[in-house]
Amino acid sequence: MVKLKGITWDHPRGYEPLRAVAKIWHEKTGVEVTWDVRTLKEFGDYPIEKLIADYDFILIDHPYMGEAASNDLLVPVDTFLDKSFMDFQESQSVGPSFSSYGYNGHWWALPIDAAAQVAAYRKDIIDLLDWKLPRDLKQLAEAASKLPVSYKIGVPLCATDIWCVFLSLCAQYAGEAVFNEDGVDAETGAWALDQIRSWKGFLYKDSFQMNPIQMLEHMSVADDIVYIPFTFGYTNYARKKWQKNRIHFADVPGSGPGKKSSVIGGAGLAISARTKEISECVSFMQFILGGDIQKTAYYQNGGQPAHLDAWLDNDNNEDCSGFFADTLSTMEHAYVRPRMKGFNRFQETAAGLIHSAAQENGPTFTIMEKINKLFKSCCA
């Protein structure tokens, strides 16, 4: 019996749908696919070259594409899949999800999970307060000032996630021109850092220590955080009976037609270049990325599908408080991070610099000089 092994991240959204679909596949074909997990931080930071010897499948973040292509770490899946299948995946792309896994003329993964930084809120509380969601960044501080003292705005700004918030703000300011040959555009980066610093007076006290899962978990069981302007969206927290309180999601403040909204996230399904079962891997990839599976079994088992049809499905939206419909505009205008070789090493260290700088008051342009010196050492 053929046995395949994959690795994903440690949240029900990350592993439950994979294990459920693997069970269906095993019953259908006799092929066994098992899934290990790693932490959310490891999902974004852990080098895939340390995983490819042990796993056939890897769920991966798109900034790794340059590293994978340059070092032959992953299978260029477009060379094993029919053009009709690739065209179908492209037609089902939610925003730039599909294109984000392409690099140097090949696709090193295909989107299996679609996400971006979106806004989250406790509808039950803001309706009671008659509190309006801020439409743009200028309204954010004003909206915070109108909250009773027991309610707060939170943003997950741990060292990993503050980087994505920073880049989301950069993208809102500069569109696609966030990076140039020297690194982050200095004016853009300074503006984004100043924005985050300006929030410190009204943010929930533990914001700089929390990641999206931790903050959404807290928001779903406690009543002090009522709004998050930037967090990676999780449909799970919008579903019936997931936690004590349902969270609703919306487009990020400042997003709109023709503008960049926030950083795209999600996950791509990649095949290790070391696998000895390429044909079986490709067959499973085609199955789990099929339209019917994405819209039904993948979503129904806690997943956040990467197919547009699944996002537009009325039953899915009814089940998750309109999550997909209410955040689709943000997805469609999302910003794709650079994918060149070395970028992941750069962003891991740069995130720590932004995390420290946002909590201090040093000159913003000095921080940008440090970040861009790092960029040149990692990505030049």
UniProtKB/TrEMBL annotation:
Keywords: Signal, Transport. The keyword Transport applies. Pfam families: SBP_bac_1 (PF01547). Its main location: periplasm. It comes from the Bacteria. It is found in: Periplasm. One of its GO terms (cellular component) is periplasmic space. InterPro entries: Bact_solute-bd_prot1 (IPR050490), SBP (IPR006059). Belongs to the bacterial solute-binding protein 1 family. This is Carbohydrate ABC transporter substrate-binding protein. It comes from Ginsengibacter hankyongi.
